[in-house]
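Regression test case RT-17, inverse folding.

Input:
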């Protein structure tokens, strides 16, 4: 065999090509991107100056290959063995005839009829655990303005406290990436210190930066003491960059970005999903060659995609939003997750037992009213009992049976006790399964629940909470609110709880510039009574509870773009009455109607709505052919700027509070964010100072034409503090 013979593993070449370039199929629906990419690579190799002889084999193991890849391998063998030029496994001289065969094969598979280079990974991967080599890599990285990294994290257990680093990949030149496994002297602490040092000179880029804060703190956080700053210092100093947050800001309608989505969307390169690469094997047990290959590719994607994402943010005017709000917030959310909140297991059990007693009472009462026992949780059986056996008025029966949805039953509940009992039963059963029983599974070895705070989920920019969802703790009923008693601060601490008063309605007053609404907020505390007085033309002191309730429903309904029908359902009145209420409201606050019409038209023209801080929310529904979808789009256009601005203000408040606690060297820590509410685990000796910080920093988070007001309380558990 010649020394210059090119020996190619055909199986691996086709598999790698299939996962490295955008997928496409032929006229028969067969996936052919792998075979196209493989022949393109062969074309490149045959064009090299030292290519004298060539050999392709198909002998390596294919047991884990997908059916699409196996079909392409079989087809490649057929083409080669049927070419009349060479056979698989045999050496052949590189001739013009061989090159022509490869070119013609490529053309036959090309969807466009042209042979074009497809986007693919071209970098070289270096794997090392040699301490001197690693030191040299970081030294060279420190000379670069931008460095991407990515931690391989063992998440076999979902527990926050059990996560550990397996290795780190780095990239500061798209032609080469590095993978450094955690072994011997290369510890996660060592890698964290190196990244912290690197953050002083280079902008660090990664995917889902919050996870990597487990191992390091960038200098832009550790050296910072000031709260929110609306400036462009990010353009002249190293700043961290999360491609996940950047991609989400550019397209907040996509709430499930993964690194392979970034690769495909911004680079046109197919990155295999981890489920396809690792299967169900824990990352700590994955073969190092497979893991390092994946890790190297992730670092390259982050490095190459970050300038493209930044350019998109810049064009949309969202750089300040990204760098000044979202990036520091990512660290604050991590810090809150790390702190967690104590949940008493014994109190949870007692709460569950209390719910169980009431659930059993309701079951007995429902069975007696129905005249028989049945599965209350079965919509079909419940529908038959309520609407056939008991003859309650029902909506039209469908193939699946009668609807027993909450909105249907709520209309019947005032006149039929069995329905009211069913609704209470449902609520308590959910309380028991979701919270009394469910929360116990999330209490970790430190006695705390470490929820995950998500900033790339909601289209409006609001923070959400999962595993478990602590933002959905019930508040409507006393029994529901009692769940907060199981959450307690550590010894020598209390909870300080502060929430914004009617923040979205205040934002509406500011954004609509309606002088009547603005004046109402400057006149007194009870905006709903003031509105009722103005709308119903009665003296403030003579406003009835019903009038105030109706005014409150209209106030908040307007914020959410509620229709006449929606208001009628909410207040249990006729549509004509609801229309009259709305008409009187707009007569009282005409600027609100002008504002709504304006933002709808602007959203139609631009395709998106915008907050006071530049956050965009695309609204494709406005161009839908379906009338109901367009109506939905108009409601979104009215509400998204308000709800999104409220989210921005809360995030600024969190930044202000976090760094104020840090600058004053207080031991108290921010631990929870729930919609318009912040909770701090506060040391007793710091209680008064923390309450003052909470109220002051939240109130100054935005300068509106109406004051931002904050209610702040402390208590020995979350229930008492709220």
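Golden output:
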């Amino acid at each position: 065999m010649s020394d210059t013979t090119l020996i190619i593993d055909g199986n691996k070449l086709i598999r790698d090509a299939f996962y490295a370039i955008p997928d496409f199929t032929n006229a028969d629906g067969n996936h052919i991107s792998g075979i196209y990419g493989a022949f393109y690579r062969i074309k490149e190799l045959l064009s090299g100056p030292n290519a004298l002889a060539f050999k392709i084999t198909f002998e390596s193991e294919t047991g884990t290959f997908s059916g699409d890849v196996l079909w392409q391998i079989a087809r490649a063998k057929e083409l080669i063995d049927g070419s009349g030029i060479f056979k698989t496994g045999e050496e052949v001289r590189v001739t013009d005839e061989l090159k022509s065969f490869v070119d013609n094969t490529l053309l036959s598979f090309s969807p466009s009829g042209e042979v074009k280079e497809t986007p693919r990974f071209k970098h070289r991967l270096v794997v090392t655990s040699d301490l001197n080599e690693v030191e040299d890599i970081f030294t060279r990285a420190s000379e670069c303005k931008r460095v991407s990294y990515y931690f391989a994290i063992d998440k076999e257990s979902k527990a926050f406290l059990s996560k550990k680093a397996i290795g780190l990949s780095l990239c500061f030149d798209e032609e080469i990436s590095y993978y450094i496994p955690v072994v011997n002297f290369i510890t996660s602490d060592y890698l964290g210190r190196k990244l912290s040092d690197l953050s002083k000179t280079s902008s660090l880029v990664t995917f889902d930066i919050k996870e990597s804060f487990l191992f390091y703190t960038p200098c832009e956080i550790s050296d910072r003491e000031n709260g929110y700053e609306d400036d462009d210092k990010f353009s002249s100093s190293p700043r961290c960059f999360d491609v996940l947050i950047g991609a989400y800001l550019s397209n907040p309608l996509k709430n499930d970005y993964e690194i392979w989505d970034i690769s495909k969307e911004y680079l046109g390169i197919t990155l295999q999903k981890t489920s396809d690469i690792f299967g169900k094997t824990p990352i700590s047990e994955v073969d190092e060659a497979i893991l390092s290959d994946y890790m190297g590719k992730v670092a390259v994607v982050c490095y190459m995609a970050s300038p493209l994402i930044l350019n998109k943010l810049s064009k949309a005017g969202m750089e300040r939003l990204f760098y000044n709000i979202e990036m520091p917030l990512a660290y604050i959310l991590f810090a809150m997750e790390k702190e967690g909140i104590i949940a008493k297991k014994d109190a949870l059990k007692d709460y569950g037992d209390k719910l169980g007693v009431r659930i059993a009472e309701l079951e007995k009462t429902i069975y007696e009213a129905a005249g028989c026992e049945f599965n209350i949780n079965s919509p079909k059986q419940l529908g038959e009992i309520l609407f056939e056996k008991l003859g309650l008025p029902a909506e039209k029966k469908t193939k699946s049976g009668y609807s027993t949805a909450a909105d249907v039953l709520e209309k019947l509940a005032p006149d039929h006790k069995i329905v009211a009992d069913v609704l209470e039963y449902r609520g308590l059963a959910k309380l028991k399964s979701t919270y009394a029983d469910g929360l116990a599974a999330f209490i970790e070895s430190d006695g705390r629940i470490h929820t995950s705070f998500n900033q790339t989920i909601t289209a409006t920019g609001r923070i959400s909470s999962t595993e478990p969802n602590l933002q959905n703790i019930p508040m409507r009923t006393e029994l529901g609110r009692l769940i907060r008693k199981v959450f307690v601060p550590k010894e020598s601490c209390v909870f300080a709880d502060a929430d914004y008063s009617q923040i979205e309605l205040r934002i509406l007053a500011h954004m609509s510039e309606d002088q009547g609404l603005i004046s109402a907020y400057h006149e007194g505390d009870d905006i709903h009574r003031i509105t009722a007085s103005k709308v119903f033309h009665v003296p403030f002191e003579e406003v009835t509870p019903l009038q105030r309730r109706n005014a409150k429903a209209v106030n908040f309904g307007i914020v959410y773009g509620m229709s006449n029908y929606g208001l009628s359902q909410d207040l249990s009145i006729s549509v004509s009455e609801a229309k009259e209420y709305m008409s009187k409201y707009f007569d009282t606050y005409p600027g609100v109607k002008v504002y709504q019409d304006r933002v709808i038209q602007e959203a139609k023209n631009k395709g998106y709505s915008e907050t006071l801080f530049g956050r965009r929310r695309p609204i494709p529904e406005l161009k839908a052919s379906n009338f109901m979808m367009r109506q939905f789009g108009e409601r979104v256009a009215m509400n998204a700027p308000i709800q999104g601005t409220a989210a921005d203000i809360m995030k600024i408040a969190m930044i202000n509070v976090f760094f104020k606690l840090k600058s004053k060297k207080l031991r108290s820590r921010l631990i929870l964010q729930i919609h318009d509410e912040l909770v701090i685990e506060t040391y007793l000796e710091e209680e008064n100072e923390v309450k003052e910080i909470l109220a002051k920093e939240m109130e100054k988070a935005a300068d509106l034409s109406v004051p931002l007001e904050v209610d702040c309380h402390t208590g020995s558990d979350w229930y008492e503090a709220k």
